[in-house]
Amino acid sequence: MSATRTVTVGSSQGLHARPAKLFVEAAQKTGLQVTIAKGEKSVNAASILGVMSLGVDKGDEVTLSAEGEGAESALDSLEAFLKTDHDEA
Predict the structure, then answer these.
(1) What range(s) does the HPr domain occupy (predicted)?
(2) Which domain holds residue 73?
């Protein structure tokens, strides 16, 4: 089973440093093969260097894809994560 969805990033700092680390940890916790793409570039969502290399900023659209059992619920949680501003604290 696979699932894909497009999400607009809500974090004021995009996916840089701390938010990227938290996103990677969330992707790893799903136990699934998850990819995140911006434009034509797609990377493993469990790779901090890969995620940071995308240069995702606030308001950017990214595409999440997951493979395996529970792919939809995994993307639900990752989508919620990306829509939240993790730099508000």
Answers:
(1) 2-89
(2) 2-83
